[in-house]
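REQUEST FORM: STRUCTURE PREDICTION
Request ID: SP-0412
Submitted by: Lab K.M.
Chain count: 1
Length (residues): 288
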Amino acid sequence: MMNAENLSRKSRLLQFDSVVLAQNMRSGNFRSLRTGQGIEFSDVREYLPGDNVRSIDWNVSARMGRAFVKQYEEDRELNVFFVLDCSLSMSAKIPAMSEAAMLLLFAAKRNSASIGAVFFDGEIKYSFSPKASGETAGAILSKILSLEDGENSCVKGSVLDSALKGAANLLKKRSLVFVISDFRTAKWKKELAFLSHKNDVVAIRIVDDCDSELPDLGFLNFIDSESEKIEKIPTFAKSFRRFWFEKNRAGTDDWKNFCLKHGAFPLSINTKDDILLVLSRFFEQRKR
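STATUS: Completed
RESULT:
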């Protein structure tokens, strides 16, 4: 848990870090972020790395002494949407989730995108329709920061399926959607596939070392944070630790293969990762 001053400082640092990420996002080869494809000319803006050189307005660039690109109505209505998991199984992963969300939110703002979000645990907590207003982005940022500050009570369970369905209903045009979760729940596959059919969906799975590896600590009481069921697990047994590892790997492979099959882009982020570096590499790979 961080105090208000530390959270504010972290937010300012992440906003600075998002500069390069915004450029990489713009050039990340997503259909929802392609520029210069609209029919109705709207305005010009300064050239950004990754912009299509064919969209450069040479007359304006010659007069101004630096490159400007033609901007179309489609360019001004980019949608970026977040589906953020705040369930109990994410408790230890909230700092990583919130950092990834803030970096992507600041990058989206720098790309003049309309931004929306849905927060969920065992119920839908907050929902924001995509808007280009600074007030909406600020409200979403405030909710993300409150997660790190531990201000929100958590309802047991996970309604990831409902959150994905709600996102699909809110989005009226093709959007870039970031689903940030540990995907440790059932009944999300059908809704993710439907959402991915009409949008560019990046499924970001937040993972921790304990998801796949257990230390030898003898018998441990394992408490399911959702059901509060307690069970003793033999962490001393190599066969059990192997089972734990294989079970996690199988689940991860299933998640990844499902995403790829249905057009979503899978990305795993470990709680120990340099999140800015992981996201930057992801967008660089998309560009290539």
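NOTES: Residues 35-39 have pLDDT under 50 and may be disordered.
Reviewed by: T.R.
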